[in-house]
What we know:
By secondary structure, the chain is mainly beta.
Amino acid sequence: MALxxxxxxxxxxxxxxxxxxxxxxxxxxxxxxxxMIHWQDGWVHYNDKAExxxxxxxxxxxxxxxxxxxxxPLDTAVAADVASYSISSDTDSNYKTPLRPxxxxxxxxxxxxxxxxxxxxxTLEHTIYLNLPHKLKQGGKYRITISPMTNSDATEKAIxxxxxxxxx
Length: 168
């Protein structure tokens, strides 16, 4: 039964048509001058039943992990370009007209590997930090627009800046 589920998972992942791309996981404030945008290119479904002395011990695990890619990966060159973003607001006069960030920084790292050695399948996650042209106002509501050229599955996200709920 477990093998059937694993094979079904792998078959679905392998046969999926790329109808969208990198999954936009989160857009949030770092502080009043920076936004953080987080994407995943895919997930790994691990074949570990969490039983016995080898539970969660993949070096001696059962293998058979399955990689699910979300279509085309994030285009990191486009995602790291300030021209790929605009920030606007109906509640903050500084952003009544959509503005571009003044600087963009990127971090990418492996977020999962399927234990299929010697050539493991792997997937990446990406974090973009946007340095904003004006400080965000407490309680302000903002709309972040993302260029479709980034290969993001979502191109717009609304956030509210609340310093008391901000996780930095």
